[in-house]
Amino acid sequence: MAIIWITGAQGFIGRHLARHLSQQNHQISGIGHGAYLPEVVKQSHITHWINGDIETTNLQQLLEKSGHPETIYHLAGGSSVGLSLQTPAEDFRRSVVSTAALLEWMRSSAPQTKLVVSSSAAIYGDTPTANIPEEGNFTPYSPYGFHKRASELLCASYAQNFGLQIAIVRLFSIYGPGLRKQLLWELCCRLQKSPTTLELHGTGNEIRDWLYIQDAVEILVAASNTASPSPLIVNGGTGQGTCVGEVATLLCQKMNPGVELKFSGQQRVGDPFSLVADTTRLETLNYTPKYTLDLGLDNYVGWFKQLQSEPT
User: Fold this and answer.
1) What phi and psi values does residue 150 have, to the nearest 5 degrees?
2) If both were cysteines, with which of 32, 45, 57, 221 could 18 make a disulfide (CB 3.0 to 4.6 Å apart)?
3) What pTM was computed for the model?
């Protein structure tokens, strides 16, 4: 049984990762924001929980509770492009400052611990048609993308100068049960009211690489085996691009087949047209995403319907 920490463990990805790792009989400890009752923490498959920022005092407190971690999965940080445009300084603090604090603590207190960092395809900016390799151009459209790239560079610095063992996964469009924001959640909430017409932002032609949450979790775990002072950076995606309009249409067919979809025609600020992963390097981890978009959307709609049927 390994001792594993997850920053942002109560977030969407963190909850799925904690459950997956606990099923492998690892002891999971977490740090992030949320004053959760002990029974809620236990239900999240977390043994020790610290409510607070990622800073030295809290990390030391978690160390005293759990013991030295074998691996830390760093999922905490800014959560969206939109929020980063509204409050860029806060996004910087949550993404860059927290990463710097974690790296500095590891340098002095846990230099042998492996670190897996969740980054984002937002660092790439826009590539209209081609699948994006890890060495692609970095032209972020938003503070969120710039801050994720800055966090990556901090990791590279600490790996090179202090020998920390690090791997970085640039996740593309993650979705799945438990995600209560972004396109799929918005669609399901609006479709629940049984409208005949829905208008969405954008053109519908925007292309994304949709990665189901369980595949994302398994890519993060596979990346942990590669952590080294020469950090592997790998795209977390399927390599298949699907336009937003097609995804929305497919989800509507599962939720409310009679609805007519329309798009505003106006692209969101900070929103690139196309983000699709080149998965050549991912193949070196001996992992291939297992979930089709159709199956993933079935699972999401099933979860949403179950959620609505539960007593409030």
Assistant:
1) -60, -40
2) 45
3) 0.94
